[in-house]
Amino acid sequence: MKMICSQCQTALKPYKNGVTVIETEGTPPKPCRIFEADMWACPVCDIKIVTGFGQPIARSYETTWGRDLKAALSNSMVIYGHQEPVELSVGDLEIDGPRLIRVAQ
Ligand SMILES: [Zn+2]
User: Fold this and answer.
1) What is the pLDDT of residue 85?
2) Among the residues of the chain, which ranges form H helices?
3) Least confident of 3-12, 53-62, 85-94
4) pTM
5) Residue ranges of the domains in the chain?
6) 80 Cα to the center of ligand 1, angstroms
7) How far is the CA of 52 from the centre of ligand 1 (A)?
8) Which residues contact 16 (CB under 8 A, 6 or more apart)?
9) Ligand 1 mean position to 15 CA, how many Å?
10) DSSP letter string over 50-96?
11) Mean per-residue pLDDT, 59-64
12) Are 41 and 12 in contact (CB under 8 A)?
């Protein structure tokens, strides 16, 4: 797969294979599916994109979801994939590194 940076028109380079992606839905964002994907970067702009998704490795309605989500959150690189733009208010879930936390007052 060839990818070109739209900013500087340089070919993107593989940056990290096996990135864990936790897809969310709704507002506040709620984890719903987990994927493995690959991260590519522009060597000039340092813009990074995540692509190369396969089938989900876990879904929130599956009986093993709690265990699978905990395992995903322990990975070294976790990216969230929000289906909706995230606007947070007090009490909502917020991203803190690889974790979702409650927004404090
Ligand atoms: Zn670029």
Assistant:
1) 76
2) 65-73
3) 85-94
4) 0.77
5) 13-102
6) 22
7) 19
8) 38, 39, 77
9) 14
10) EE---S-SEETTSTTHHHHHHHHHTSS-EEEEESS-----TTSEEEE
11) 96
12) yes
- Given this model, what pLDDT does residue 55 score? 96
How remote is the CA of residue 39 from the centroid of ligand 1, in Å? 14
Residue type, 22: I
Nearest to 21 by CA among 75, 92, 95, 101: 75
> Which is more confident, 60 or 75?
60
Angstrom distance (rounded) from CA 27 to CA 46: 30
Ligand 1 center from residue 5 Cα (angstroms): 5
Rounded average pLDDT over 54-81 = 91
Is the pLDDT at 48 greater than 80? The verdict is yes
Spatial separation of the C-alpha atoms in residues 35 and 83, rounded to whole Å = 14
Give φ, ψ of 87 to 5 degrees: -120, 125
